[in-house]
Design goal:
single chain, alpha/beta, Rossmann fold, Dihydrodipicolinate Reductase, domain 2, 2 domains, nine-stranded mixed β-sheet, six-stranded parallel β-sheet, 15 strands, Oxidoreductase
Length: 375
Protein backbone atom coordinates (compact mmCIF):
# COMPACT_ATOMS: atom_id res chain seq x y z
CA UNK A 1 0.00 0.00 0.00
CA UNK A 2 1.36 3.42 -0.94
CA UNK A 3 1.26 5.90 1.93
CA UNK A 4 1.80 9.56 1.21
CA UNK A 5 2.53 12.37 3.59
CA UNK A 6 -0.29 14.83 4.18
CA UNK A 7 -0.19 18.03 2.13
CA UNK A 8 1.44 21.01 3.86
CA UNK A 9 1.32 24.74 3.01
CA UNK A 10 4.63 24.24 1.18
CA UNK A 11 3.26 21.32 -0.84
CA UNK A 12 0.30 21.95 -3.08
CA UNK A 13 -2.54 19.40 -3.19
CA UNK A 14 -2.53 17.27 -6.33
CA UNK A 15 -6.07 16.38 -7.43
CA UNK A 16 -7.45 13.90 -9.94
CA UNK A 17 -11.00 13.32 -11.16
CA UNK A 18 -12.37 10.06 -12.55
CA UNK A 19 -15.45 10.78 -14.65
CA UNK A 20 -15.83 13.60 -17.15
CA UNK A 21 -19.60 14.01 -17.28
CA UNK A 22 -21.62 16.74 -15.55
CA UNK A 23 -20.78 15.65 -12.01
CA UNK A 24 -17.08 15.19 -12.70
CA UNK A 25 -16.94 18.64 -14.27
CA UNK A 26 -18.43 20.12 -11.09
CA UNK A 27 -15.55 18.64 -9.13
CA UNK A 28 -13.00 19.90 -11.65
CA UNK A 29 -14.33 23.46 -11.46
CA UNK A 30 -14.30 23.38 -7.67
CA UNK A 31 -10.71 22.12 -7.50
CA UNK A 32 -9.56 24.65 -10.09
CA UNK A 33 -11.04 27.47 -7.97
CA UNK A 34 -8.97 26.57 -4.91
CA UNK A 35 -5.58 28.33 -4.77
CA UNK A 36 -3.86 25.49 -2.92
CA UNK A 37 -4.91 22.78 -5.41
CA UNK A 38 -3.44 21.67 -8.72
CA UNK A 39 -5.84 19.66 -10.87
CA UNK A 40 -3.27 17.40 -12.51
CA UNK A 41 -5.16 14.41 -13.90
CA UNK A 42 -8.56 13.37 -15.27
CA UNK A 43 -9.84 10.04 -16.54
CA UNK A 44 -12.78 9.28 -18.82
CA UNK A 45 -13.68 7.29 -21.91
CA UNK A 46 -14.77 10.09 -24.28
CA UNK A 47 -11.58 11.25 -26.04
CA UNK A 48 -12.98 14.53 -27.35
CA UNK A 49 -14.49 15.57 -24.03
CA UNK A 50 -11.32 14.63 -22.20
CA UNK A 51 -9.22 16.72 -24.60
CA UNK A 52 -11.53 19.73 -24.28
CA UNK A 53 -11.43 19.59 -20.48
CA UNK A 54 -7.66 19.21 -20.49
CA UNK A 55 -7.42 22.41 -22.52
CA UNK A 56 -9.91 24.24 -20.30
CA UNK A 57 -8.06 23.41 -17.07
CA UNK A 58 -4.50 23.19 -18.38
CA UNK A 59 -4.16 19.50 -17.52
CA UNK A 60 -1.15 17.73 -19.00
CA UNK A 61 -2.12 14.17 -18.05
CA UNK A 62 -5.41 12.59 -19.13
CA UNK A 63 -6.34 8.93 -19.12
CA UNK A 64 -8.88 6.69 -20.81
CA UNK A 65 -8.19 4.10 -18.10
CA UNK A 66 -8.87 5.08 -14.48
CA UNK A 67 -6.52 2.36 -13.24
CA UNK A 68 -3.63 4.03 -15.02
CA UNK A 69 -4.49 7.37 -13.43
CA UNK A 70 -4.71 5.92 -9.92
CA UNK A 71 -1.55 3.92 -10.54
CA UNK A 72 0.57 7.03 -10.96
CA UNK A 73 0.59 7.11 -7.12
CA UNK A 74 1.14 10.83 -6.55
CA UNK A 75 -2.43 12.09 -6.13
CA UNK A 76 -3.45 13.56 -2.79
CA UNK A 77 -7.19 13.67 -3.53
CA UNK A 78 -9.36 11.83 -6.03
CA UNK A 79 -12.96 12.53 -6.97
CA UNK A 80 -15.03 9.61 -8.26
CA UNK A 81 -17.90 10.68 -10.54
CA UNK A 82 -18.80 7.60 -12.57
CA UNK A 83 -21.67 5.06 -12.77
CA UNK A 84 -22.53 3.51 -9.42
CA UNK A 85 -21.10 0.05 -10.14
CA UNK A 86 -17.64 1.62 -10.43
CA UNK A 87 -17.73 3.58 -7.14
CA UNK A 88 -16.31 0.79 -4.99
CA UNK A 89 -13.44 -0.45 -7.18
CA UNK A 90 -12.19 3.04 -8.03
CA UNK A 91 -12.56 4.46 -4.52
CA UNK A 92 -10.86 1.47 -2.91
CA UNK A 93 -7.97 1.61 -5.39
CA UNK A 94 -7.50 5.34 -4.77
CA UNK A 95 -7.60 4.92 -1.00
CA UNK A 96 -5.05 2.12 -1.14
CA UNK A 97 -2.84 4.34 -3.30
CA UNK A 98 -2.81 6.89 -0.48
CA UNK A 99 -5.37 9.41 -1.78
CA UNK A 100 -8.33 10.90 0.04
CA UNK A 101 -11.55 10.20 -1.87
CA UNK A 102 -14.66 12.25 -2.59
CA UNK A 103 -17.22 9.96 -4.24
CA UNK A 104 -20.53 10.85 -5.84
CA UNK A 105 -23.73 9.49 -4.28
CA UNK A 106 -24.83 6.83 -3.61
CA UNK A 107 -21.78 5.42 -1.90
CA UNK A 108 -22.31 2.12 -3.75
CA UNK A 109 -24.94 -0.23 -5.11
CA UNK A 110 -25.47 -1.88 -1.71
CA UNK A 111 -24.59 -1.37 1.90
CA UNK A 112 -22.18 -4.31 1.86
CA UNK A 113 -20.33 -2.78 -1.09
CA UNK A 114 -20.30 0.56 0.73
CA UNK A 115 -18.91 -1.18 3.82
CA UNK A 116 -15.93 -2.37 1.77
CA UNK A 117 -15.20 1.26 0.89
CA UNK A 118 -15.46 2.41 4.50
CA UNK A 119 -13.19 -0.45 5.58
CA UNK A 120 -10.63 0.59 2.95
CA UNK A 121 -10.69 4.20 4.17
CA UNK A 122 -10.11 3.11 7.76
CA UNK A 123 -7.32 0.74 6.79
CA UNK A 124 -5.59 3.41 4.69
CA UNK A 125 -6.06 6.16 7.28
CA UNK A 126 -7.60 8.35 4.59
CA UNK A 127 -10.81 10.33 4.18
CA UNK A 128 -13.80 8.96 2.28
CA UNK A 129 -16.67 11.40 1.80
CA UNK A 130 -19.84 11.13 -0.26
CA UNK A 131 -21.13 14.05 -2.33
CA UNK A 132 -24.49 14.95 -0.79
CA UNK A 133 -24.65 18.33 -2.48
CA UNK A 134 -28.36 18.92 -1.90
CA UNK A 135 -27.89 19.48 1.81
CA UNK A 136 -25.72 22.45 0.74
CA UNK A 137 -28.61 24.17 -1.04
CA UNK A 138 -29.47 27.53 0.49
CA UNK A 139 -33.09 26.57 1.13
CA UNK A 140 -32.13 23.32 2.91
CA UNK A 141 -29.57 25.24 4.96
CA UNK A 142 -32.27 27.78 5.89
CA UNK A 143 -34.47 25.00 7.27
CA UNK A 144 -31.49 23.62 9.20
CA UNK A 145 -30.92 27.08 10.69
CA UNK A 146 -34.57 27.18 11.84
CA UNK A 147 -34.06 23.81 13.51
CA UNK A 148 -30.77 24.82 15.12
CA UNK A 149 -32.10 28.09 16.53
CA UNK A 150 -35.16 26.40 18.04
CA UNK A 151 -37.76 28.02 15.77
CA UNK A 152 -39.22 24.66 14.80
CA UNK A 153 -38.60 22.92 18.10
CA UNK A 154 -38.03 19.18 17.95
CA UNK A 155 -38.72 17.75 14.49
CA UNK A 156 -40.85 14.62 14.77
CA UNK A 157 -42.28 13.98 11.29
CA UNK A 158 -41.34 14.70 7.69
CA UNK A 159 -42.86 14.15 4.28
CA UNK A 160 -40.08 14.31 1.73
CA UNK A 161 -40.07 13.62 -1.98
CA UNK A 162 -38.37 13.88 -5.34
CA UNK A 163 -40.79 13.22 -8.19
CA UNK A 164 -40.34 13.34 -11.93
CA UNK A 165 -42.94 13.08 -14.66
CA UNK A 166 -40.69 11.84 -17.48
CA UNK A 167 -37.26 11.57 -15.92
CA UNK A 168 -35.90 8.07 -16.38
CA UNK A 169 -32.24 9.06 -16.99
CA UNK A 170 -31.97 7.02 -20.21
CA UNK A 171 -33.94 3.95 -21.14
CA UNK A 172 -31.56 1.09 -21.85
CA UNK A 173 -28.60 2.68 -20.05
CA UNK A 174 -26.71 1.51 -16.96
CA UNK A 175 -29.23 3.48 -14.89
CA UNK A 176 -31.98 0.99 -15.72
CA UNK A 177 -29.84 -2.14 -15.30
CA UNK A 178 -30.25 -3.52 -11.77
CA UNK A 179 -26.76 -5.01 -11.56
CA UNK A 180 -25.02 -1.81 -12.64
CA UNK A 181 -27.14 0.75 -10.80
CA UNK A 182 -28.34 -1.05 -7.69
CA UNK A 183 -31.91 0.15 -8.30
CA UNK A 184 -34.05 2.93 -9.72
CA UNK A 185 -35.15 6.29 -8.32
CA UNK A 186 -34.96 5.08 -4.71
CA UNK A 187 -31.18 4.60 -4.87
CA UNK A 188 -30.64 7.45 -7.36
CA UNK A 189 -32.88 10.26 -6.05
CA UNK A 190 -34.17 8.80 -2.80
CA UNK A 191 -30.70 8.66 -1.29
CA UNK A 192 -30.54 12.47 -1.58
CA UNK A 193 -34.00 12.76 0.01
CA UNK A 194 -32.98 10.48 2.87
CA UNK A 195 -29.80 12.45 3.40
CA UNK A 196 -31.30 15.92 3.61
CA UNK A 197 -34.25 14.71 5.72
CA UNK A 198 -32.17 12.87 8.30
CA UNK A 199 -29.71 15.78 8.32
CA UNK A 200 -32.51 18.26 9.06
CA UNK A 201 -34.00 16.02 11.76
CA UNK A 202 -30.68 15.68 13.62
CA UNK A 203 -29.68 12.19 12.42
CA UNK A 204 -32.25 10.14 14.36
CA UNK A 205 -31.83 6.36 14.26
CA UNK A 206 -34.20 4.54 11.93
CA UNK A 207 -35.68 1.49 13.65
CA UNK A 208 -37.88 0.08 10.88
CA UNK A 209 -38.94 0.66 7.28
CA UNK A 210 -41.97 -0.33 5.23
CA UNK A 211 -41.62 0.26 1.50
CA UNK A 212 -43.39 -0.42 -1.78
CA UNK A 213 -41.90 -0.14 -5.26
CA UNK A 214 -43.68 0.13 -8.62
CA UNK A 215 -42.47 -0.41 -12.17
CA UNK A 216 -45.32 0.58 -14.47
CA UNK A 217 -43.99 3.00 -17.09
CA UNK A 218 -40.33 2.15 -17.68
CA UNK A 219 -40.91 -1.45 -18.82
CA UNK A 220 -43.27 -0.12 -21.50
CA UNK A 221 -40.66 2.33 -22.80
CA UNK A 222 -42.42 5.33 -21.25
CA UNK A 223 -41.06 8.11 -19.08
CA UNK A 224 -37.59 8.43 -20.56
CA UNK A 225 -35.72 11.74 -20.57
CA UNK A 226 -33.19 11.07 -23.28
CA UNK A 227 -31.52 8.56 -25.55
CA UNK A 228 -29.55 5.49 -24.60
CA UNK A 229 -26.30 6.25 -22.78
CA UNK A 230 -23.14 4.21 -23.28
CA UNK A 231 -24.94 1.84 -25.67
CA UNK A 232 -25.68 -0.79 -23.04
CA UNK A 233 -29.07 -1.70 -24.50
CA UNK A 234 -30.40 -3.17 -21.25
CA UNK A 235 -34.00 -4.00 -20.51
CA UNK A 236 -35.77 -1.92 -17.87
CA UNK A 237 -35.08 -3.86 -14.65
CA UNK A 238 -35.68 -1.38 -11.79
CA UNK A 239 -38.56 0.49 -10.17
CA UNK A 240 -39.86 3.79 -11.54
CA UNK A 241 -41.61 4.84 -8.30
CA UNK A 242 -41.00 4.01 -4.65
CA UNK A 243 -42.57 5.04 -1.38
CA UNK A 244 -41.50 4.25 2.19
CA UNK A 245 -42.42 4.85 5.82
CA UNK A 246 -39.45 5.07 8.16
CA UNK A 247 -39.98 4.68 11.91
CA UNK A 248 -37.53 6.63 14.09
CA UNK A 249 -36.20 6.00 17.55
CA UNK A 250 -38.28 8.01 20.00
CA UNK A 251 -41.45 7.80 17.94
CA UNK A 252 -40.63 10.06 14.98
CA UNK A 253 -41.43 9.23 11.37
CA UNK A 254 -40.54 9.97 7.76
CA UNK A 255 -42.65 9.38 4.66
CA UNK A 256 -40.54 9.28 1.50
CA UNK A 257 -41.72 9.21 -2.11
CA UNK A 258 -39.58 9.24 -5.20
CA UNK A 259 -40.12 8.58 -8.89
CA UNK A 260 -38.39 8.77 -12.23
CA UNK A 261 -41.67 8.60 -14.13
CA UNK A 262 -45.27 9.21 -13.04
CA UNK A 263 -48.42 10.82 -14.42
CA UNK A 264 -48.46 14.07 -12.46
CA UNK A 265 -49.00 17.77 -13.07
CA UNK A 266 -45.59 19.17 -12.22
CA UNK A 267 -42.74 17.87 -14.39
CA UNK A 268 -39.95 17.66 -11.75
CA UNK A 269 -40.33 18.56 -8.09
CA UNK A 270 -38.52 17.86 -4.86
CA UNK A 271 -38.84 19.13 -1.32
CA UNK A 272 -39.84 18.46 2.26
CA UNK A 273 -42.57 19.26 4.74
CA UNK A 274 -41.04 19.18 8.22
CA UNK A 275 -43.18 19.12 11.37
CA UNK A 276 -41.77 20.17 14.74
CA UNK A 277 -43.08 20.68 18.25
CA UNK A 278 -42.95 24.48 17.94
CA UNK A 279 -43.14 25.08 14.21
CA UNK A 280 -42.69 23.61 10.78
CA UNK A 281 -41.25 24.17 7.34
CA UNK A 282 -42.41 23.50 3.81
CA UNK A 283 -40.05 23.54 0.83
CA UNK A 284 -41.01 22.93 -2.79
CA UNK A 285 -38.48 23.11 -5.61
CA UNK A 286 -39.94 22.92 -9.13
CA UNK A 287 -37.85 22.17 -12.21
CA UNK A 288 -34.58 22.47 -10.29
CA UNK A 289 -34.91 26.14 -9.37
CA UNK A 290 -31.76 27.33 -7.59
CA UNK A 291 -33.95 28.39 -4.65
CA UNK A 292 -37.33 26.88 -3.90
CA UNK A 293 -40.52 28.17 -2.30
CA UNK A 294 -39.87 27.95 1.44
CA UNK A 295 -42.20 28.87 4.28
CA UNK A 296 -41.57 28.59 8.02
CA UNK A 297 -44.70 28.05 10.13
CA UNK A 298 -44.92 29.08 13.79
CA UNK A 299 -47.70 29.91 16.25
CA UNK A 300 -49.28 28.90 19.53
CA UNK A 301 -52.62 27.60 18.30
CA UNK A 302 -54.53 30.80 18.98
CA UNK A 303 -52.44 32.65 16.42
CA UNK A 304 -50.18 31.64 13.59
CA UNK A 305 -47.31 33.12 11.65
CA UNK A 306 -46.35 31.98 8.16
CA UNK A 307 -42.97 33.39 7.12
CA UNK A 308 -41.85 33.07 3.48
CA UNK A 309 -38.09 32.71 3.18
CA UNK A 310 -36.14 33.68 0.06
CA UNK A 311 -33.02 31.63 0.56
CA UNK A 312 -29.82 32.11 -1.44
CA UNK A 313 -29.06 29.53 -4.11
CA UNK A 314 -26.37 27.72 -2.17
CA UNK A 315 -23.15 26.46 -3.70
CA UNK A 316 -23.72 22.73 -4.10
CA UNK A 317 -20.68 20.82 -5.33
CA UNK A 318 -18.37 23.78 -4.78
CA UNK A 319 -19.24 23.82 -1.08
CA UNK A 320 -18.89 20.03 -0.81
CA UNK A 321 -15.42 20.09 -2.39
CA UNK A 322 -14.30 22.98 -0.20
CA UNK A 323 -15.41 21.17 2.97
CA UNK A 324 -13.66 18.00 1.78
CA UNK A 325 -10.43 19.93 1.23
CA UNK A 326 -10.75 21.59 4.64
CA UNK A 327 -10.97 18.13 6.19
CA UNK A 328 -7.95 16.96 4.19
CA UNK A 329 -6.01 19.90 5.62
CA UNK A 330 -6.72 18.74 9.20
CA UNK A 331 -5.21 15.26 9.75
CA UNK A 332 -6.51 15.15 13.32
CA UNK A 333 -10.06 14.78 11.95
CA UNK A 334 -9.43 12.27 9.14
CA UNK A 335 -10.81 9.32 11.12
CA UNK A 336 -14.14 11.18 11.55
CA UNK A 337 -14.72 11.22 7.78
CA UNK A 338 -14.66 7.57 6.77
CA UNK A 339 -17.81 7.39 4.61
CA UNK A 340 -20.06 6.22 7.46
CA UNK A 341 -22.81 8.73 6.65
CA UNK A 342 -23.01 7.52 3.06
CA UNK A 343 -22.96 3.93 4.29
CA UNK A 344 -25.92 4.57 6.60
CA UNK A 345 -27.95 5.89 3.66
CA UNK A 346 -27.09 2.80 1.64
CA UNK A 347 -28.16 0.51 4.47
CA UNK A 348 -31.53 2.27 4.58
CA UNK A 349 -32.00 1.93 0.83
CA UNK A 350 -31.17 -1.78 1.18
CA UNK A 351 -33.81 -2.12 3.88
CA UNK A 352 -36.42 -0.36 1.74
CA UNK A 353 -35.79 -2.70 -1.18
CA UNK A 354 -35.90 -5.69 1.18
CA UNK A 355 -39.20 -4.50 2.64
CA UNK A 356 -40.71 -4.02 -0.82
CA UNK A 357 -39.59 -7.49 -1.90
CA UNK A 358 -40.87 -9.14 1.27
CA UNK A 359 -44.11 -7.19 1.40
CA UNK A 360 -43.71 -6.34 5.07
CA UNK A 361 -42.08 -3.97 7.52
CA UNK A 362 -38.37 -4.55 8.14
CA UNK A 363 -36.88 -3.94 11.60
CA UNK A 364 -33.30 -2.63 11.87
CA UNK A 365 -30.65 -2.93 14.56
CA UNK A 366 -28.46 -0.06 15.73
CA UNK A 367 -26.09 -0.57 12.76
CA UNK A 368 -29.05 -0.51 10.34
CA UNK A 369 -28.71 -4.20 9.60
CA UNK A 370 -31.94 -6.09 8.97
CA UNK A 371 -33.08 -8.00 12.06
CA UNK A 372 -33.85 -11.64 11.35
CA UNK A 373 -33.04 -11.51 7.65
CA UNK A 374 -35.57 -10.87 4.87
CA UNK A 375 -37.38 -14.22 4.67
Amino acid sequence: MTQQSSPTPARRIRAGVVGIGWAGQQHMAAYAARPEVDLVAIAGKEDDVRAQLAETYGIDETYADWEEMIGRGDLDVVSVAVPTFLHAPISIAALRAGAHVLCEKPIARTGDEGQSMVDAAREAGRILEITFNHRRRGDIEAIRAAVDDGTIGRPYHARAMWLRRSGIPALGSWFTNAEMSGGGPLVDLGVHVLDWTLHLMGEPRVTAVSAVTHSELGPRGLGGSGGVKHGTGHAYEVEDLATALLRLEGGGSIVLETSWASHRSTPDQFGIALYGTDGGADLSVVDYAPSGELTIFTGDGASRQDTPIQAPAGRGHAAVVETFLDHVADPATWAEHDGSVGLSRARLVDACYASAAAGREIALDTDLNIIGGTA
